[in-house]
User: Fold this.
Amino acid sequence: MELHDRLEEVFRQVFDNETLTLTNEMTAPDIEGWDSVAHINLMFGIEQAFGVRFKGNELAEMKNIGELKQFLIGKGAS
Amino acid sequence: MNIARAQCAASALTPEARGDAFRKKGQVEQAIEAYLEGVAAPPSAALCLKLARCYEQMANYAEACRWALSIVDAGDDFTSWQAGWTSFQRNAQKARRPAVRSVKVALLGSYTTTQLGPMLCLAAGKLGIHIDLYESRYGQYQQDILDHKSALYAFNPNIVLLAVHEGDLHLPEYSQRPEEDVRQEVSRWTGLWQMVTERSRARIVQHNFALPCEVPTGHLATRLSGSRYMMTQAVNTRLGEAAANTVSLVDCERLSALIGKQRWCDPRYWNVSKQAVALEALPLLGRHTAAVIASDLGLSRKCLVLDLDNTLWGGVIAEDGLAGIKLGQGPDGEAFVAFQEYLLKLKRKGVILTVCSKNNHADAIQPFETHPEMRLKLQDIALFIANWESKPDNIRTIAKTLQIGLDALVFVDDNPVEREIVRKFLPEVDVIPLPEDPSYYLRTLADYLLLETSSLTAEDTERTDQYRARAQIMELEVAAGSIEDFYRSLRMQAIVVPFDASQLPRITQLIGKTNQFNLTTRRHGMAQLEAFVLDKSYVHLALRLRDRYTDHGLVSVMIARQQGDILDIDTWLMSCRVIGRTVETTMLEQLCRRAAQLGCTSLRGTYIPTQKNAMAADAYAKHGFERVGDNEGSEVWTYDLTTKGLIVNAFVKPVDSWELADGAS
Assistant:
């Protein structure tokens, strides 16, 4: 599965929305339910799904889909 | 045969992938069929979730709930659990799913508990417990407890859960006077416990303190009683002593070691959102906390049903013979011995052991009688069934003979087919998924949490003996002529006394878990019982029963309140171990005597029907009570002492201490 699809899968699970589709420009306000608690759950879900670790700082700041993808590619995910 | 199978033959796709394809096309029914084909035991979390979603689409909300809860057995993955909980919550409202027990839990934390709540609720849901959850605001546990007008008390919880962490301990990194500092910190916690107990009816469940893995004084810390490291251990120990039978502790120190301390706490998540327990560890913590709550509610399981060949020893006794089975020698032989020794330890804490094996009886008992490496002996087994009947039939016989519910049983068998049959035909019975390698049998059983007990009483340690005696009595019952002859042949004696402090843990346990012979099913907690003992208007009776075979221990409880010349029965229950032994009549006999002493002229009884207590429905009628009316779904009965006289039981002799003269003959 492509990185985009895998990421979308994590989002769908965390936000309990099977029709959710991601675009690179999306940020937290674009997705219903993306509050501070959901954000933590999301970051954790991404770490588990891709086998990567964010830095403490990145955990708090990573809120744009394109940025997230770049980060994952940088960590060797494809 | 059907479309799904036909496509399976045509393509090499896995059932799950075929299910996905069907779903994409909107063919939900076919998708379910394909998914179910792919279900292993235990099924993967992803598959459980997919099935939950499919059933939701089909508007089969009960099945959707069941699959959402199955995620608990699929492993401790936080993200799946979170999704499972969302799905369960959405469907549970529509399914109107009956829970075994509903309980109000107040979750008070010293850290962010927003994510722990759902984990706890999901794990409890799997055990049949519906949790109505109140959550204190971040870190507000003390304020909530100290302020008697707080939302906590307005919520009126059954359980107050203190989810606290090591960082919250008021202890210095190094103390010149560790004894004093530890004492103060312990009394801070016990003070909070006391306040909760005084201001609510709640039972307290507290997480104890997981030691951190970063220790500035290093290994030296273990030699310094003043190090925070050692003081934290001392606090855990003292809290355990202070808790005794009144507060339940969840041993987070052990859980953190089990998962690994570096995984238990992740500093990044602490820094970002004050998660003292990492998300990764929350399902584990949720499962264990739910198990402790279940145990407090009396929902723990009582009895293991053990297979023999390749479960208690390696090989097949009927083919390999005594000398051929693996037991004691070699790696597998050692593993089976270790497993048996663990089973013995469970027996000593009150778990009943039974055997259910497809074997000839003579072959099956041979190792128990003569194999030198057998740790389990025949007298450790309450009921031994070896025949060629089906396991579900035999398991039903076990439940019936021991007079316990199927929902008290746990099935242990190496054979996946037998396990599947039992799962399918006896869904009430829990099944241990033993791994292939016997080396891990012990660990797999230890990871099964519903054998948790909330207190240990003398009765617990003798339970298998009592149940074995009961099985023998069932045989005698068949042999004896009339039922009266049978009762007389048992030479029953009873000691009936008011409650005293030493009996309260056992009484609380009985009140918490007795479902069948329980007229009112009022679940009074320890604090309430202590109040009854102090209140002079209450009559309380605890009955111990002994017969020629065994001491059954404390098996029946009655609480009644004097209201003028009426003695009103608040609680009347009896352990199912002694049902059909006329013990209920003795209880009424004793109540009549107390009534006479108090000058009461009548008894009043209430019967509140539940799903499980139908067997007690005729308890009053049988003893000459008259039904005088109904009150909100419960029946009210009275017994006029002046016209009907005292109730007497000819079959149980009331005694002040056991008479053993001819008891053993």
Q: What stands out?
A: Chain B has 29 helices and 18 strands. Chain B touches chain A at residues 49, 53, 77-80, 82-83, 86-87, 114-115, 267-269, 271-273, 275, 279-280 (CB under 8 Å). Chain B has a mean pLDDT of 90.
